[in-house]
Structure formats: structure tokens, C-alpha cells
Amino acid sequence: MQRDDMLVCAGCGVPIQTEHENAPGFAPASALEREQLVCRRCFRLSHYNEVTPTAIGEKEFLEIANTISQKPALVVKVVDLFDFQGSWISGIQRFAGNNDILLIGNKVDLLPKSINEEKVRKWMRGQARDWGVKVVDSALVSSQTGRGVEAAATYMSKYAKGRDVYVVGCTNVGKSSFINQLIKTYGAAEEAVITTSAHPGTTLGLIEIPLEQNQSLYDTPGLINRHQMAHVVSAEDYKVVFPKKEVKPRVYQLQSAQTIFFGGLARLDVVDNQADVVCFMSNELHLHRTKLEKADELYQTHVGGLLQPPTEETRESFPDLKEKSFSISEKTDIVISGLGWITIRPKNKVTVRVHAPEASGVFKRVPLI
């Protein structure tokens, strides 16, 4: 299909390109010879009922998101439970307009099995409310294992009330994998919620999946949040940074003037008093405790070696660490976006300093667990 001498996908209308696999419109060069030209994403959707993720810039995302408020719909906002703050899309209420928002927390399988899921769902709604976003409900899922998908689909049906459904989220939250789980779970059912004949839509950047009774589900491209750790580490280091299974909390009793390193990616200083520190990070990530007075020298000498990732090969491209201070008097989470979080339980009021790449988000929040 051509539009003004430009090759475009016959499925979703996006311009075809052959260079960037994770960008919209990618098709292998061999596909250009086909009579009906479709991008790889549409090809996999129509042949395998599989939605593959795509990422776009903020400007393009805003153009798509702003159209949602003009239509009666349910907005399903998918966030990463392991990186809740880092995977949040600001302005979501504006994009939704008067439409209801259902909040889906993905990657629940990474949290300790001992969690109270109802408390986590309530915590999610509280975080959204603190950011000025009203959600009708929340659900926990694992797009990796399929856990919670049936319950999430029930909520979607309940709150959609026959309207179209738009699924939004930033990159790496597992949004498209969640949709694939919906297709896998319901696609072959006699009374399918999502049919197996998943035809791509024609709106630029959107993939349309027909539901029952003239209702559609739209998968939107993922927004890139630049402050996530994923954007400052190499692909090889990312395998260590991002957990693949349930995170085992690691507990330390830090005295005044002690430091704990999280590989060579970040560190936490307890400046005064003492605190119990519980680290929720990848089980593969090496943690190292030392005296605060030795911390700077240790980092300069051993980053890329004892303190890794980053590995020695990627050390030169890894950004410098910037400092951020917090005064904490009660149990609090300190989040390093994309790396995990540290729960601080102070004996008395304590001052802590976090050193992390400047581009990475560092936040203080009400404890998740």
C-alpha cells in the first residue's frame, strides 16, 4: 500500500521502515516484495494472535493519547509493580478525559509471595489519588505467567460497559504481553472476550483487536520514560539489573556513617543515627556494605570490578552518580527507578543520601510492602 509515494502498512497505516526493529512500522526488507505489505507487528498479530511492543517519542504519544479523551472508552493503564513511579505516565487523567481509568499492576510475580494482594491494590489506588488521578479499580497480573489475567478481564468487562478499551503504558511494563495473555486466555473460547480473528486497525500507531458486539480493544505504542535505569545500562547489564523471578528481600542494619552499594549503579548512605534497610532488587545484583568515609574511594577504584554492573566494558559510557538527600522519621520507601527500592525503618529520625545517575528517577513514597 502506498500513500503519497510512501510505503505504509496495510494493517495499521503506519509508514513502513526497515531499520529499527522496535520502532513502529518495522518490516524486514524481504517483506517489501509482498503484494500486501504489512509491518511485522501486524503480521504477527494477524497470523499468531501476538502483539509485539513498540515505542514512540512523547510528541507522537501525546498525539495518540489526546484522541482518547474525545471518545467514550475505558482506559486501562498498565504499570510495572517493580517500578511503579518510573512506569507512570504523567497527564493520564487529561488523556482519559471523562473516561474511567482501570489501573493494572503488572509483574506481581516479582513481589514476595507473602504480600497481601488486596493491600497492594489499595496502595496502587492511593498512589494514583496522590497524583490527582481517580481510578475506578485496580488489579494485579503477571503477563509472564498469566496470573490474575482472568480477574483483570472481568474488571475490564465490568467497567467498559460495551465501550472500546484503550490499553496504555510506557515501555517495559509488559503492556503488549498482557494483551497477548488476554488473547491466549480467551481467544479460543466458545464465547471469546477477545476473538482469534484479531484484525489490525487503521489508525496510525494503534492496533485494533475486535471484541464482542462491535467493541474493540486498542493497543497503543509504549511511551519511553528516559529516567528509567534501563536507558543508562547496556543490554548485557540489564539482564542482571532486571529481576526474572520473585525478589528476595535483603535486610541490613546500617549504623551511622555506613554505605551500601547496589552494584556500581547506585548507593545509599546513612548519614546519622541508624536504620534497618530492606533492599528489594534483583537477586542477581551484588550489594556491598562499607564505611561512608571509604565509599568514594571504593567506587573510584572498584566500579566495573567488585562493584558491577556496570561491567568494565560499559563503565566509560555509564553516567556519573548524583546525590539526593532525604530526612526520614518513619518507615519509608526510597525508589531508584528501574533498579528497585529500599525500605528504610529508622530507629530515630535519620538522614540518608542516595547516589544514582542523574537521569534516573529517585523518589520517596509510602511503603509498598
TrEMBL record:
Domain named CP-type G: residues: 59-226
Residues in the signal sequence: none
Transmembrane segments: none
One Gene Ontology MF term: GTP binding
One Pfam family, short name: YqeH-like_C
Coiled-coil region(s): none
Domain of life assignment: Bacteria
Record InterPro entries: G_CP_dom, GTP-bd, GTP-bd_ribosome_bgen_YqeH, Mito_lipid_metab_GTPase, NOA1/YqeH-like_C, P-loop_NTPase
Protein name: CP-type G domain-containing protein
Organism: Aureibacillus halotolerans
Highest classification ranks of the organism: Bacteria, Bacillati, Bacillota, Bacilli, Bacillales
